[in-house]
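Case study B.
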Amino acid sequence: MDEEKVYTMVLDLLNPALRDQALLDLSKIREQYEDLALVLWYSYGVMSVLLQEIVSAYPLLTPPTLSTVASNRVCNALALLQCVANHNETRTLFLHAHMPLYLYPFLNTSCKTRPFEYLRLTSLGVIGALVKNDNPEVITFLLSTEIIPLCLRIMETGSELSKTVAIFIVQKILMDETGLYYICQTYERFYAVATVLNNMVNQLVETQAMRLLKHVIRCYLRLSDNPRAREALRQCLPEPLRDATFQQVLKDDITTKRCHSQLLHNLADGMH
Amino acid sequence: PAQSPLHTALVGNIEPSDMEDGQIALPNLAPYLTFNPQVILYSAQPATKRLVLQAINRSIREIIEPVVERSVAIAAVSTRELVAKDFAMESDENKMRKAAHLMAQNLAGSLAMVTCKEPLRLTLMTNLRNILLSNGLADNLVEQAVHLTVSDNLDLVCAVIEKAAMEKVTLEVDECLLAAYTNRKKHREQRPGQPFYDLDVLSASRFPGSLPEPLRTKPDGLQAGQLRVYEDFARISRVAPPPAGTATGATGSAGGPPLMNPVANYPNAAAGYAGAVVGGMMPDTNAAALDFENASGMQPSAMAAMYHQHQQQQQQQQQQQQQVSVHQILDR
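Model:
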C-alpha cells in the first residue's frame, strides 16, 4: 500500500467534508498497511476525530433511530480503532486514554435491527482485538470496568457471530490468572457466568454451532481449574455436556474433544 | 424567560432536604417543566404539579452522582491523554486549555446523556407513579399523567445531568493539565520565541517525526486548521435528532457528524432552560454551530437522495466485508 495515499486519506479524516469517504477508504485498506495504527495514533487530531464520530452516534441509540448509513459510518471509525487496539505499540496508549469505554454504550444496546447488531459486533471486535494478545494490562483494565456483564448479555441474546466474539472475550479473561480469580471470587460472579454458559449449551443442542461450542467447552474447562468453581461445576455442568449429545459434532475436532474429556476428567477427580 | 403563573406557584418548592452538603446543586426546574394540557389530572387538581416537581428532583438525586462521576472520570482521562499528545509542541497554554475544555465537556456530556437517559426514564416513571398514588389519586388518571409527563420532561431532566457533568469535567481537566499549562507559561517567560517541546510526550515515541507535515505538529505551534478539530467538539449534538426525515437528510448530506443546534431539539419550555445551560457555559458555541450550518448552503433533499442511493448499494456489501474481519480476530 502506497504510504502517500494512506497519508492523504488520514489527512482527509480531519476535514469534516471528506471524513465519511476517508473512513470508508481507510477501513478497507487497514489490513494492507502495517503501520496504519501508528499513523492513526500519532497523527495530529485523528483519535479525537474518531471519538467525535463515536459520541455523535450516542443520540441515535435511545430511542433507537440508528440508520444503516449512520451505523456503517460509525463502524468504519470503530474498524480504525480496532486497528489501534490490535497493534503492539498503540494498544497500551489506547487503554491509557480509556478509549474502549466509549464503546460500552454501543454494547449496552438491545435493539435487534441490523444496524444495531452490526454496531455491537464491530464494537466487540475492538475489545476482541484488545484481548487476543494475552496482555495482562488489558485484562486488568477490562475487569475494572463493566465489560463482563455486557458480554454475558450478548452471549444470551446476540446473533451467533456476536455471541462468538463475546464468549471469546470472556474466555480470554478467564485464561488470565487474575481474570479467573476475579470471576470465581464470589458466588454471584461465578453463578452469572455459569448460568449464561448453561443457557448457551441448551441452545447449542438445537443449533449445533460448532465454533460456539468450542468456546463454551474451553470456558468450562478453564473454570474447572479453580477449586471452588470445580466443586460448583460438579453440581451444575449441564447434562448435554455430560452425555453423548455433542459426540457427533465433536468427532472431527480433536482439540476440542480433548478439552471436553479433560473437563469431565477434572470434574470426576476427587469425587470418590 | 417570563415568569408564568406556574413559576410563581412553584418557585422555592425544592425541599431543603434535597440540597445537602457535598451534593451537586440542582437548579430550580419549576419554571421549565412541561405540564401537558391533555393530562386531566393537572387541570382537575393543579396542586398535583407540586408532586411532579418532587418526583423529578428525587429521580435526579437518585441518578446524578454516579453518572456524573463516571462520565467525568472517563472524559478527563481521554482528554488529558489526547490533548497532551496533540499539543506537545504548542507553547500557548490558552489554546491547549480551550481545546481541552471543549473536548472534555463534549465527551463528559455525551457519556452522561447516553448513560442516564434510560435509567432516568424508568426512575421518573416509578417515582412519579408512587408519589401520585400515595397521595390518593386514581390509578387511571395517574397512568396517563405519568406517561405524558415523563416523555415531555425527560430531555430537560437529562440536560440537568449533562450540565452537571460538563461543569465538573471542566474543573477536573484543568487539574489534570495544570502542570502542562504551567510548563508552557514558564517556557514563554524564560525562553521567549523559542520553540516548545513537551519531552515527556515526544520522547515516548519514535514515530511523529516521520509523518508528513500536516499530520504532525510543528515547533511553531498548531495551525488554525488543526485547532478546528477540537473546536468541532462544540458542534456535536448530544440530543436525539428530530424524528422527521428532513433534518437527518440535511446532516447526512453535509457528510459530517450531526450539526444541529442542540437547543432547537428541546421541546417547549425546556428550550429556555437548555439555552441557559448551553449558552451559559460556552457563549460562542451556538453561534458557531449556526454559522456552520448556514455556510454549508446545500440543498438537503437533493443531496440526501443522491447520497442515500449511492450508500445503499455499498451497504450490504460492506457489512459482509466487515464480518469477515471479525472472523479474523477469532481465527488468528
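Chain B touches chain A through 64 residues (CB under 8 Å). The remaining cases will be described in the next quarterly update.
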